[in-house]
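ok so I'm stuck.
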Amino acid sequence: MRGLRRLGFAIVTHTHVAGSIHADLAAAAPHWLAVPRDVNALLPALWSSGVCKEADGTLSVAGLRVDELADKVGTPAYVLDEADLKARAAAFVEAFAGWDVFYAGKAFLCRAVAQWVTEAGCGLDVCTGGELAVALSAGVDPAKIGLHGNNKSDDELAAAVDAGVGRIIVDSLPEIDRLAALAEQRQRRVRVLVRVTAGVEAHTHSYVATAHEDQKFGISIATGDALKALLRCQDAAWLDLAGIHSHIGSQIFDADGFEVAARRTLRLRAEFAQASGVLLPELDLGGGFGIAYTSADQPATPGDLAVAMREIVAHESAALGTPEPHCSIEPGRAICGPSMFTLYTVGTVKQVPIADGVDRQYVAVDGGMSDNIRTALYAAEYSATLASRRSEAPPRLSRVVGKHCESGDIVVRDEYLPADIAAGDLLAVPGAGAYAHSMASNYNHVPRPPVVSVADGVVRTLIRRETIADLLALDVSGEQ
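replied:
not stuck anymore, here's the structure
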């Protein structure tokens, strides 16, 4: 039991009001996970607006039952609620009217999504040549595209310059020199922002916190290199310096970090104005807005974020006695994350003892860390629901695992699922829109699932399922 306490589990010694079975469950569950009154019920905050359960317990999305969907496209599959994603993009554009909203394509990008978010009024941020190619092939106006990246190759920079992207966010002093040379060679002016590290410790996992000093992104304000980078861009004949960029991390629920970042970046802006005589017109405060993966998460709405961030910029600008810059943000996860879930088929189910008198139900599905690495990578938490029927069985503390040869192959670390869940049942995991497909792999030579969208009861394939033939086509080692 001491081991459970070290892992952050609440140790419950009193009798649970709902009975002894619930007391045992609560003893092994993380503190934030409550025993559900109805194991079939959905928590709406975790799902897209088009998801509900039918009277027989079957999950449906945008008017299509998932059992019918599984018959059409198979499992595992990423299922996207098209109307929900479009609405979330539009909500950010509306809430931040007067600011620019750039969809962070790293969260999830395909040609259809690129078209949908730009039609909603968003620009598009890309961070590799591949993402840039998808955006351009989708017909996105290059002027609405920004290129990120801490280690852009000359080919990627050249592709962006040749395409005429609206902005390149430079990330190091050497990159500035390389980009300036490429722009001069092509005799093309390039609009740039300088990404800085503001020294902010965002309240998130260390792997997704990106504005503290000891990490790979940006140019440090504290060392003076950020000011040096701004001056170098200003002096480069073919670079048009537009402003400063800051991104403090991901899955952030409060505005405290943005307040500190705004204060430090706006102070840098004022210092640059003193040194150069030019007050930069733009400030990008990045993205990283959190979503609800579990009942423990309480994300802010776009409207709440907009009010808080506008107040922060106005207050800090007034304190410095400088006009407010034109601002932009970069939501990715907050737009597409809740719009997608992953649909699996259950295979093996095991009861595994984890403490005296306490078992955990292990539910293995036909996917795993190859289609969602986030749980294994940085202990991300997820939820799940039985999706193909209603169960009258009691809840049992469960762990959803994959089919890969890793003990860390976990999809959902802790969830209450029906005690009678069995092979052949469908299981749905919400919050898959951000990074599940983007970070997917072929580990153990497992083909990646398809991405399908549903609108008005009609399913459409956005990215087809990979096949064994696809994997073999890349393996040229046996060819003569």
